[in-house]
């Protein structure tokens, strides 16, 4: 079965601040928008940011964290699996833009099933993102 694009909608505290982050930092193409929401192309998936006035201008979302490979992984988080070269290019771009990582880019589960490159960071509102890559996506994505 061919993979199909997912759609996810997330809250943001400030639409223009978030619009700049997704366009300028993540290089997401912008789609439709209104005064309350904006569609973005996140590696072929539809990410929609919705202004949430309940968050407040100076507040960020509170996340739970779980231990994975001795790191503190933010939950919930949105993730995209990339080809290794695309993952490295994104990691380099995020570093050059001064993005603060929750978990710096690294290889986890080294030598184990599911070995992967991963990184975690937050958008300006505190929505958590993980981008990961595998040397063999089909063989490793669901490896036990």
Model description:
- It is a single chain.
- With 144 residues, the protein is α+β, with helices and mostly antiparallel strands.
- Helices cover 19% and strands 42% of the residues.
- It folds into two domains: 1-53, 2,3-Dihydroxybiphenyl 1,2-Dioxygenase, domain 1; 64-144, 2,3-Dihydroxybiphenyl 1,2-Dioxygenase, domain 1, CATH 3.10.180.10.
- The protein has helices at 15-25, 84-96, 137-140; strands at 7-12, 29-33, 37-42, 45-51, 64-68, 71-75, 78-82, 101-108, 116-122, 128-133.
- The protein has a four-stranded mixed beta sheet, covered by helices on one side.
- It is globular and about 45 Å long.
**What is the count of distinct domains?**
2
Low-confidence stretches: none
End-to-end distance: 21 Å
Fraction of residues in helix: 10-25%
Give the helix/strand layout.
Blueprint: E1 7-12, H1 15-25, E2 29-33, E3 37-42, E4 45-51, E5 64-68, E6 71-75, E7 78-82, H2 84-96, E8 101-108, E9 116-122, E10 128-133, H3 137-140
Parallel strand pairs: 1-4, 7-10
Antiparallel strand pairs: 2-3, 3-4, 5-6, 8-9, 9-10
Please sum up the structure shown.
By secondary structure, this protein is α+β, with helices and mostly antiparallel strands. The chain is built from three helices and ten strands, in the order E-H-E-E-E-E-E-E-H-E-E-E-H.
Name a few traits of the molecule:
144 residues, alpha+beta, 2,3-Dihydroxybiphenyl 1,2-Dioxygenase, domain 1, 2 domains, four-stranded mixed β-sheet, 3 helices, 19% helix, Metallothiol transferase FosB, transferase activity, transferase, Glyas_Fos-R_dOase_dom, Glyas_Bleomycin-R_OHBP_Dase
